[in-house]
Amino acid sequence: xxxxxxxxxxxxxLLLALAVATPASAARRYTRYRHHKGHYxxxxxxxxxxxxxxxxxxxxEEIDRLQLPRILDDAQxxxxxxxxxxxxxxxxxxxxxxxxxxxDKRYCRPWTNQFLQDMGEAYYNEFHIPLQVNSAVxxxxxxxxLRRRNRxxxxxxxxxxxxxxxxITVDLAKRGLTxxxxxxxxxxxxxxxxxxxVEVAEERRQACFxxxxxxxxTEWREANALADKLVKE
Length: 233
Prior knowledge:
single chain, alpha+beta, globular
């Protein structure tokens, strides 16, 4: 009897020690999902392309470095389109824009558009289906309305305001991707992030990859094109 009591006390102490040793951050990575039989299973959410407060700061620092405005309303947006500071995102066989994106919001900065066309072509060559854009430029008015129904949306002003407001950011759809397709997108974006050309976050609730593109992408792109030309010669 004494042995059994001692074993139970030892087990309780061991479980308590494990609970204390487990970081809260690790516990938060688990989400409960209920399947059709009513039982719960735990799935780890630990993306490679994890968003962060620091990343949001860097996105706004990039906007400030480029001296770009946060677009206030549709009138300012139309003026930037007229002066071709924002360019249309053209649909091709390799790039699709979600029908949910209104026609007057299918715009971005020229270097962001270059990124989209390049990634779309690379994705199509790999999987023979188009890459989908779920969101592009937004106005501060639009972002303010978005925050009313989506508490996870970035604010329309401040140090961590949404970088969509400057037209340098797009959201790429991830819903419906196979595991292989998801890994390809993840690797492609991670490579550009590691080169300092994009800031990227895999969002969970919105089922997309949020991608801010630096204007340095153009220089990198041109250098690659020149290197390829020299190799062929």
